[in-house]
Amino acid sequence: MSRKVSFAVAAAVAVGLPLVSAAPAYAHGYTTSPVSRALHCKQGTVQNCGPIQWEPQSVEGPKGFPAAGPADGTICAAGDSRWAPLDDPRGGQWPATRVQSGQSFTFSWTLTAAHATTSFRYFITRDGWNPSQPLTRAALESTPFLQQDYGGQRPPSTVSHTGRLPNKSGRHLILAVWDIADTGNAFYQCADVDFG
């Protein structure tokens, strides 16, 4: 290799390095109310979760749900195989937060890195869904029962949204979706609830 070519390669690498290290910090967060599967893993309430126990805030995948986003069966893990234990229904035995049909409920997030936000949306499973199967779009109501729009604003590190739960009975799953405004991603959190 000639000295001119070697110098050109070294210069290109040197110029490119600052660009790689200057990547923006991405948002991260998880739901604390109702307690998400990711948080149950972090707290040790559920075992054999893999690396999600150290990174409950990292369940990030493509946004655009339900038209786009993670594939059916991988929704709770945001389509990321590192978090696949979140998609395992564990025979419908994930710990569930007790709630009441139609009650006012406050949904809470802990954000470890806030980001410009489009919205927070909350979906719930349909009556008759099967809690022993991985989550699919067909198992969810087609529209969110609660949505909070942020218009690109950056939320604080602790975020709460209050809304009325749908009229349901028995076990259900709530999918919380945090849509990021300035990236192509969203954060997904699945929380098991029991309406009794």
UniProtKB/TrEMBL annotation:
Residues 1-27 form the signal peptide. It holds the Pfam family LPMO_10. Gene3D superfamilies: chitin-binding protein cbp21. Residues 28-193 form the Chitin-binding type-4 domain. Keywords: Signal. It comes from the Bacteria. InterPro entries: Cellulose/chitin-bd_N, GlcNAc_Chitin_IntDeg, Ig_E-set. This is Chitin-binding protein.
